[in-house]
Amino acid sequence: MHSKMKDNTILHVDQNAFYASVEMLKNPSLRRVPCAVAGDPVNRHGIVLAKNQQAKDAGVKTGEALWEARQKCPDLVFVPPDYPSYLYYSRLARELYHEYTDRVEAFGIDECWLDLEGCPEEDGTVIAEILRERMKKEFGLTVSVGVSWNKIYAKLGSDLKKPDAVTVITQGNYQQVVYPLPVDKLLYVGRATYRKLRRIGVRTIAELVALGPDFLRELFGVVGLSLYAFAAGLDTSEVEKAGRAVPIKSVGNSITTRHDLYTAEDIKAVTYMLSESVASRLRDAGMAARTVQISMRDYQLNNFERQTPLDLPTQLCSEIAPAAFSLIMQNFKEGQWIRSLGVRACKLVDASKLKQVSFLPDEKRRAAVLRLEDTMDTLRSRYGGLSVRRGISLVDSSLTGHDIKSENVIHPIGFFGP
Amino acid sequence: MSRPVTVTVTLEMSAGGTRKPLEIIWEDGSVYEVVSSRYVGRRAALSAGSGECWICLINGQEVPLYYSPLNGRWWMDGKGDPEPAPAVEPYRRVKDRTYRPPHS
Amino acid sequence: MERKYVTVIAEVKPDGDLYPKTLRFEDGSEFKIDRRLQTPRRDPAKDGTSDWRFYCLIEGREVTLFYNADTHRWWIGRDA
């Protein structure tokens, strides 16, 4: 039961298989074969950044190592990433969205929320269809659009029908459409949260809602209240008004919590939730971060940002979260009430240059390697270097990214940093 | 299918920033006069890519001419098939002899 | 000296390179550009914009033509 909401329609526009789609637009013959955009395609240490439908049908997954993808699909054609083109089309798409509203919030390079203020749902749906058609006609790219009264449901909607579709989630149908969905489809339900929920038998969004806000708060702290709101369609977070040029130099997530945060425990829970989402998005983009930035806003709306470098470039929540949390706590004053928190991964590098990452996509194995590393160092210092043959070298000596072959090739670091 | 063909364009660029194609030189060197043209905005090309499009009257026919702001090139939809998809490339030999694929 | 915007008829090569051929002022006077003297240069003082500089020979005199790749406008002279 929802109190009467003002006419407000939010769209979430998701470019279908963005990098792959742009490559197929540049070279249409790629539409006829299974293809994947791969970080460093001639190097087996690269990962799949995006794939087309045939590759997807063959079982190729975004984020997996190239040799794995090849095993599933021997005819898979790899195409190196062309970031200038992706950024170009991403910017043009946002300019298109800006023709309809100023409230356009980019979520990564290929997703945007649009707030069609004061627009009733039927008109919002019409605009969604217009955007879908214009993207096809003017760019030759397909999008999936979710239409709803809140950001979370709009994003769920765009995820439901792919490619080239509009899904409307209304007050009338949300229980049929959203509630049966698996709970990890919800934004900010990462692996850790999902596992906790599974352990208490919660699999669907309906079951999450049934737990109620009080129980969820007991289980997850303040974060639980946010989860409840997301699941029940009660999220009221705003679509940020953005300038037209949104440089994609970092990956960040921020949240305004339902209740102000004033305990270390609550702050930690929110930090980990945000970091998990950031880490997952980094892995999807094949990027690793060298710096973590946190942002805090308190009840007096004082905004605060700080950065800290990381020891090693990382895509792991287990490395980003503690750094973010400790940075927040260093700057958190006793008695302060935090209204919103943000975690951002900056100074991004191409993760395929870090050999160990592509060998060890699982966080447990990275931790295992780090332990192994400690052991080997100990052995080495005791018995000399040749006593241990390294099976894996941890960090590629050159983190400088691709060669700049021409002015037009954008160096991943130069572009995504500093 | 259509093949994207980049062309040489003789363009009148007005002081106010409006562009008008006057003449096109095809890849084989033949020169075509653009009798008239009209700007139709951004379009996905029949051949490949997307760009700003002018419909040009050439030899009694209306044909689209595209411009890509990304690389400053002009192209048209040519006859024939586009380039075939790149071949499936074998991996470069890995120098690290101790490399072993991780256990699945 | 203020900017003076001009109409230019130019040849755009398949790789996007520009060869200005004719220059026309607001008053209608037209000048043939003999040739482009060197490859166009980005203005280092204005890096970050898409301003290009073309050194041209017009009726025996060296003239610098400025061009912006986003607005597609040409001008001579500089902002003060």
What report would you give on this structure?
The complex is a heterotrimer of chains A (418), B (104) and C (80). With 418 residues, chain A is of the alpha+beta class. In chain A, 42% of the residues lie in helices and 21% in strands. Chain A has 15 helices and twelve strands. Chain A has helices spanning 18-26, 53-57, 66-72, 83-98, 121-139, 151-160, 174-177, 191-199, 205-220, 222-232, 264-285, 317-331, 355-359, 363-383, 412-416; strands spanning 8-15, 35-38, 48-51, 77-79, 104-106, 111-117, 143-148, 165-168, 251-261, 287-298, 303-314, 338-350. Chain A starts with 7 loop residues before the first strand and ends with a helix. With 104 residues, chain B is mainly β. Chain B has one domain (3-78). Chain B has no helices and eight strands. Chain B has strands at 3-6, 8-13, 19-25, 31-33, 36-44, 50-58, 61-68, 73-78. In chain B, the strands form two sheets. In chain B, strands 1-8-7-6-5 form a five-stranded antiparallel sheet, with no helix packed on it. A three-stranded antiparallel sheet of chain B has the order 2-3-4, with no helix packed on it. The mean pLDDT of chain B is 87. Chain C is an all-beta fold and 80 residues long. Chain C has one domain (4-76). Chain C contains no helices and seven strands. Chain C has strands spanning 4-12, 18-24, 30-36, 41-42, 51-58, 61-68, 73-76. In chain C, strand 2 (18-24) and strand 3 (30-36) form a beta hairpin. The radius of gyration of chain C is 12 Å and the shape is globular. Chain C starts with a strand and ends with a strand. Chains in contact: A-B, B-C. Strand 2 of chain B pairs antiparallel with strand 1 (4-12) of chain C.
Provide key terms for this protein.
heterotrimer, A: 418 residues, alpha+beta, Alpha-Beta Plaits, DNA polymerase, domain 1, Dna Ligase, domain 1, 4 domains, 5-stranded mixed sheet, 4-stranded antiparallel sheet, 15 helices, 21% strand, globular, disordered C terminus, B: 104 residues, mainly beta, 5-stranded antiparallel sheet, 3-stranded antiparallel sheet, 0% helix
Helices and strands in order, then pairings?
The complex is a heterotrimer of chains A (418), B (104) and C (80).
Chain A: E1 8-15, H1 18-26, E2 35-38, E3 48-51, H2 53-57, H3 66-72, E4 77-79, H4 83-98, E5 104-106, E6 111-117, H5 121-139, E7 143-148, H6 151-160, E8 165-168, H7 174-177, H8 191-199, H9 205-220, H10 222-232, E9 251-261, H11 264-285, E10 287-298, E11 303-314, H12 317-331, E12 338-350, H13 355-359, H14 363-383, H15 412-416
Parallel strand pairs in A: 2-4, 7-8
Antiparallel strand pairs in A: 1-6, 1-7, 2-3, 5-6, 9-12, 10-11, 10-12
Helix pairs in contact in A: 9-10, 11-12
Chain B: E1 3-6, E2 8-13, E3 19-25, E4 31-33, E5 36-44, E6 50-58, E7 61-68, E8 73-78
Antiparallel strand pairs in B: 1-8, 2-3, 3-4, 5-6, 6-7, 7-8
Chain C: E1 4-12, E2 18-24, E3 30-36, E4 41-42, E5 51-58, E6 61-68, E7 73-76
Antiparallel strand pairs in C: 1-2, 1-7, 2-3, 3-5, 4-5, 5-6, 6-7
